[in-house]
Amino acid sequence: MRYLALIFIFLFFTACSLKKPISAKEGISDLLTLSQNSSTYLKEKSINGIDANEDSYEEKYFRVWNEIPDDTKDESMWPFVSYTNSEMYGENLQPIKEDAFKKLEDNANFGEYKSINKTAITLNHLDIRAFPTSKPMFKDPNIAGEGFPFDYVQNSTVSANKPVLISHYSKDEEWAFIFSSFTSGWVKSKDIITIDKKYTDAWQKAKQVFLLKDNIPMYDEKGNFLFRSRVGMMLALIEEDKDNYTVLSVSSYKNNQPNYHKTKISKDISSKGVLEFNNKNIQSIFDEVAKSKYGWGGMFGERDCSSTVRDIYAPFGLWLPRNSFQQSQVGKVISLENLDDMKKIELIKKEAKPFKTLLYKQGHILIYVGVYNGEIIALHNVWGIKTKQNSQAGRLVIGKSVYSSLKLGKEQADYDEESEILRNLKSINIIAN
């Protein structure tokens, strides 16, 4: 038993829009005829376990507490190259002037890059921004698939009480540039707190408790709200009783000091260690994460395609990168390049393993769940279906996680066949044995 003597700490311490997007309230065949529940695709299947290594998962989860990432300053400054050389639009849908980017770059203070390198933890579910600003930046809103909600400053999100490393602060000290286990970027300084290494070391020696439900309020021992749960979170175990785990959680105290708490979590929404990859647990996690609406870069506390995939597999101890291309390179990769649609279908049906295989097209990732009534079915979190009418590109907005065929929206009169999922699949990859 890896119970940690944490009391001493406690005491001390697709993209997956026509110009105006059309809401897909009804009329999309897949959403009307296909079950939107994982149990349908698990029926008559017996899913075997996966070779998950809990120690390896934890090593990656905590790695920014143990080593300084090797990202260079130029690599971390990628937004100033990618976005400032193209026309971007602000929240008023007017072009952003060059002077605004110069001010952001000056405040970003990259002359101090990796000058602090302090271990820290997040206090809330945070947006990770590409620039030190809360203001959005859009590409041309007149182009289908651009404008709201595609804020290019939104890089990703990170859950509450997750390990991060502080590289440096902005000149105004409102923002901190941080490394998480899967990405880097800017968060508000007030939303993280530094923790001494002796405490981070002790935290990592604990048996870990995985959260299996989203949006469950977490409280301190006095009943004060701390944060909400998120599938894929891990918290260090202190003790347990018949119904609950007691875990360590952190809030901010006066003078920005860490305040350590004992938080009780019901065993109904958590697991001591990784979950077994079986039908019951697959259904529970897939159905929970699939409740998410589409959120570009995780905006508004939602998920995009790759964060959906990442969070689904986290409770099973399977570590995946954050973006869709990197996810497509995990495990056994089978190329679909230069194959026609029929050969792609044949190869997927032959090689893909239900619930253990990802399907990749540029900018989008899906989870293969099997063949249903002769059709390949996948789970994915998707913004919408590309349409084309009189050469005018558009979107039929879905904006959530769905089970669909690889020809989602094919019955639509303005369906853009050139953008079809199946036609654009580049590879499949089997991520687990």
UniProtKB/TrEMBL annotation:
Ligase: present as a keyword of the record? no
Q: SH3b1 domain spans which residues? A: 136-188
Gene3D superfamilies attached to this UniProt entry: endopeptidase domain like (from Nostoc punctiforme)
Per the record, the domain of life is: Bacteria
- Single annotated GO MF: cysteine-type peptidase activity
User: What are the SH3b2-type SH3 domain coordinates in residue numbering?
Assistant: 196-242
Q: Which residues form the signal peptide?
A: none
A Gene Ontology biological process noted in the UniProt record is: proteolysis
- Which part of the chain is the NLPC/P60 N-terminal domain? 6-113
Pfam families, per the entry: N_NLPC_P60, NLPC_P60, SH3_6, SH3_7
Q: Which InterPro entries match?
A: NLP_P60_dom, NLPC/P60_N_dom, P60_peptidase_YkfC, Papain-like_cys_pep_sf, SH3b1_dom, SH3b2-type_SH3
Q: Per the database record, which ranges form the NlpC/P60 domain?
A: 293-381
Q: Which UniProt keywords apply?
A: Hydrolase, Protease, Thiol protease
**Membership in a protein family:** Belongs to the peptidase C40 family.
What is the name of the protein in this document?
Answer: Glycoside hydrolase
Q: What is the source species? A: Sulfurimonas lithotrophica
Instruction: List the top taxonomic levels of the source.
Output: Bacteria, Pseudomonadati, Campylobacterota, Epsilonproteobacteria, Campylobacterales
